[in-house]
Design brief:
Layout lengths: L5 E8 L6 H9 L17 E6 L3 E7 L9 H13 L5 E6 L7 H10 L6 E5 L7 H11 L7 E4 L8 H11 L17 H16 L9 E9 L10 E9 L2 H8 L4 H18 L3 E9 L7 H6 L8
Parallel strand pairs: 1-3, 1-4, 4-5, 5-6, 8-9
Antiparallel strand pairs: 2-3, 7-8
Length: 305
């Protein structure tokens, strides 16, 4: 099998909101990473697995690369930068534009120090005319030594098959790292917490989601006589930094918290293939993003780098 089979690790990098998590979810055919239109959606390195008869690609979805503003930001950047030295190929996602801003130039500087094969992925091609796609390619083609440039639409799934084919060509020959049924190494509790945070990101005002974390306090499955999964009871706490934020998260007569919980529960039931009884609480921990102890308590650990 190893004579013809390929396997390896591919990092997905890019500025916040370019569609990294959406693309990874599309490639593996299942939602693992949360998505929203706000920055800092991905905080930890999320590992997912694509497997077919020719190759196994382990994707590492990293936090968006930007400048750190607090200890949480520093942690996120160390995760993103550290990942690049551990992989067989790097996918850099950009939007179809001719403008190269300060954030992209920082990534260009980082990639200039990387010896790993680099694939430039022009994402969101469904949002512009074909002419603009070619103009974006022309803008970026000489900023790094790319092994390939592939335009895609992660949202629509356009040209993602070609991207997978390109990545396979860059991987070394070797055996599978995971069995063919594995799609992620993330614990269910961590994914559940992220699904709650996703709904908070989508439904709350712009500044509040950056200051929240989600902790799953308990997750217990009831026994089922039918042989399938029983009801899963989940208790979770949304952590915020200010008393004023707590009131907004809860909402008038608890309406916002109920909305977050309802939509998160639907996503959980789809993921876990079971009914979910979700209970949410909100607690204030001031300036938790600058506390190393609280960062570790909420799952942002040095050992995950």
């Amino acid at each position: 099998m190893t004579d013809k089979y390929k396997s390896g690790f591919v990092a997905i990098i890019g500025r916040p909101n370019v569609g990294k998590s959406t693309l990874m979810n599309r490639l593996i055919g299942q939602k693992i990473a949360i998505t929203s239109n706000k920055a800092q959606t991905t905080r930890n390195r999320i590992q997912t697995v694509y497997t077919d008869e020719e190759a196994q690609i382990v994707f590492l979805d990293t936090p968006g690369i930007n400048k750190a503003k607090n200890k949480l930001g520093e942690y996120m950047m160390s995760v993103a930068h550290g990942t690049l030295s551990e992989v067989d190929a790097v996918m850099w996602l950009v939007e179809p534009t001719t403008f190269i801003g300060a954030g992209e130039r920082h990534i260009i500087e980082v990639l200039g120090k990387v010896k790993t094969p680099i694939v430039l992925v022009i994402n969101k091609t469904d949002t512009v005319a074909e002419k603009e796609i070619f103009e974006a390619i022309d803008t970026y083609k000489d900023v790094c030594s790319f092994d390939a440039i592939v335009p895609v639409s992660a949202m629509k799934g356009k040209n993602t098959d070609e991207l997978v084919k390109t990545l396979k060509s860059l991987l070394p020959y070797g055996p599978q790292f995971y069995d063919e049924d594995t799609v992620t190494d993330q614990p269910e509790r961590q994914i559940v917490a992220e699904l709650i945070r996703e709904q908070a990101l989508r439904q709350l005002d712009k500044e509040i989601p950056h200051g929240i974390a989600v902790v799953v306090d308990s997750m217990k499955e009831r026994t089922s006589d039918a042989g399938n999964r029983g009801m899963i009871d989940i208790d979770a706490t949304i952590i915020c930094e200010r008393d004023s934020h707590k009131g907004i998260i809860i909402g008038k007569k608890g309406a916002m918290l109920k909305s977050i919980g309802t939509k998160a529960r639907i996503s959980m039931e789809n993921l876990l293939d079971a009914k979910v009884n979700l209970k949410l609480w909100v607690k204030v921990k001031k300036d938790w993003r600058d506390s190393e102890i609280l960062l570790k308590n909420y799952g942002y650990r040095e050992s995950e780098r």
